[in-house]
Amino acid sequence: MPRDPVLRGPGPGELSPDSEEGVSSGASAEGEDVGFDVDDGQLDESLRPQTLDDVVGQSKVVERLRIVLEAARRRGDPLSHLLLDGPPGIGKTTLATVLPRELGVDVQITSGPSLSAPKDLLPYLTNASRGSVLFIDEIHRLPPTVEEFLYPAMEDFRIDITLGEGLNARTINMTLEPFTLIGATTRSGMLTAPLRDRFVNREHLDFYGIEDVTEIVRRNAKRLKARLETGAAVAIARRSRGVPRKANNLLRWIRDFADAGGHTAITDELADAALKMLEVDELGLDSLDRKYLQTLACVFGGGPAGMQAIAHSMNTAGETIEDEVEPFLLRVGFVQRTPRGRMITAAALTHLNLTLDGEPDESQRQLFK
Ligand code: ADP
After folding, report:
1. 97, 264, 270, 288: which is deepest, by most CB within 10 A?
2. Spatial contact of 244 and 91, defined as CB atoms under 8 Å apart
């Protein structure tokens, strides 16, 4: 069946900062929902950098990407397959959409969990034009059958389709246009070696420093037409845990707070009041993080305790704890992962003014209401 072109990637010069052209949530073959989850929706989209020059920080990664881009441009070849890994909200989708824009090629977007069988991937592969980009988010969640289907497509731009069953089964080989696969994952360790090895370029995106996040906040405040004092931008950056998406969310909250109160500018004091109301402390710990530490300290006597046991006590999904809570607490040294389970550290107890044997002291009681 003939299919509409998915996305026409405009050249870099044709982009306006808020343009969303050139990016779509994927090729919906027969009108079905292919389900790419742009979790922060519209806002995230409009704040997403559109060119490599707009990308703040990650300078070494950007430098290397500039080189592969330039080489591909000069040779007129498609970009080599690229794997981006790093925590959520750190810029993987941003880079995956900026690169095709820079090259002026089409991009199709999908995600691992929405590709449950090879037939789900087929339309994307047959629809890929020469040099175009196929972006698969959460690629570590591809089922093995889809992953195996992808191998020859990545390596030889060919797919093997089996028709019929049993004795009558036939395999048809189909040639594809050379395309670029960009995979993004938050858990590169879960990727199988054969898939990982088929990515010629692999880049790891790390947490951002305060200065880079401050710059991102400053730029995004301008895009949102919010007047933000420097101290407020720094306060947001400090609480963002080095994650641009978290910074965007805090900025959005502070802007709402200011607009609701009829304020035209976001002063340092206003930002401070808004952040206090959100219960995000000066290290970026939110109420869920504090609940985790309090549970570990007060219910499990500081540990060691299994992650699932803590999750059950908190009445929270284990995945949420593992993906959203623990990485940061481990990074700031508030929790240790030992073979016998999680243990709280002295630094965490000091930060929260907690004792191991009992309740938080009076000044902290407010936090755990
Ligand atoms: P991921 O795909 O890793 O979850 P995204 O690429 O969706 O993260 O990034 C979330 C948001 O954070 C983007 O919409 C953008 O506003 C901001 N952002 C991320 N990385 C950068 C960057 N390097 N420079 C500027 N903004 C960024």
Report:
1. 97
2. yes
